[in-house]
Amino acid sequence: MDPSLLQINQKPKSKGKPGLPKTSTDYAIVSKQGLENDFNNFRSFKKKNDPNMALMLLSYDIIKNLNIEGWPVQPGDLGENLTFNNIDYSKFSPLQQYRVGEIEMEISFICDPCMTLKHLPYIGNEKVKDFIKTLVGRRGWYARVLKPGKIRKGDLLKKI
After folding, report:
1. What is the pLDDT of residues 80-111, one digit of tens each?
2. Edge-to-edge order in the sheet of strand 34-35
């Protein structure tokens, strides 16, 4: 089966609330800054809206593996904007370019796990250090948007 967009995840800015988990939407508009109606505090303030961090991608195989390991992760929990089906996480690497829906994007760099993950209801302060350790190298990839446009759940992911 071809790789496809399993889920689009977003979380609007909400004062006093963490950006995790992100919730599902069936379609979205993507600009050079990222997904409309999505806010990432780290990207916005610490990284000054770095265009190399416009989107965060994750493949569903990582979520399945985390579930097998006993972590009840669901799409959107790790802060990814786009969750893909039918592609091995190890296939992503920097500078690769992909098309999904109307957009084109380029993989920038891997996302490091952070303490924000403690806000997930099944993690908390007690488990966050262990969770971060297990996520090293598996949290997701950041991508730069080369061509803005619309995306829909189910859109195919094509390498360009």
Report:
1. 999 999 999 999 999 999 999 999 999 999 99
2. 34-35, 27-31, 149-152
Report the C-alpha gap between 15 and 146 in whole angstroms. 30
Spell 94-115 as b/e; 16+ CB within 10 A means b: eeeebbbbebbbbbbeebebee
Look up the CATH number of domain 4-154: 2.40.33.20
Please state, as a whole number, how many other Cβ atoms lie within 10 Å of the Cβ of residue 72: 12
pTM for the complete prediction?
0.93
- Taking each continuous run of H as one helix and of E as one strand, the counts in the chain are 3, 11
Q: What local confidence, expressed as pLDDT, does residue 71 receive?
A: 98
Q: Which residues contact 3 (CB under 8 A, 6 or more apart)?
A: 84, 85, 86, 87, 156, 157
Kindly tell me the burial class for residue 75, based on how many C-beta atoms sit within 10 Å of its own C-beta (0-12, 13-18, 19 or more).
buried
User: Contact 96/107 with Cβ under 8 angstroms?
Assistant: yes
pLDDT mean over 20-34: 94
> Looking at this protein, which amino acid is placed at residue 148?
P
DSSP β-ladder status, 23-25 and 4-10? antiparallel
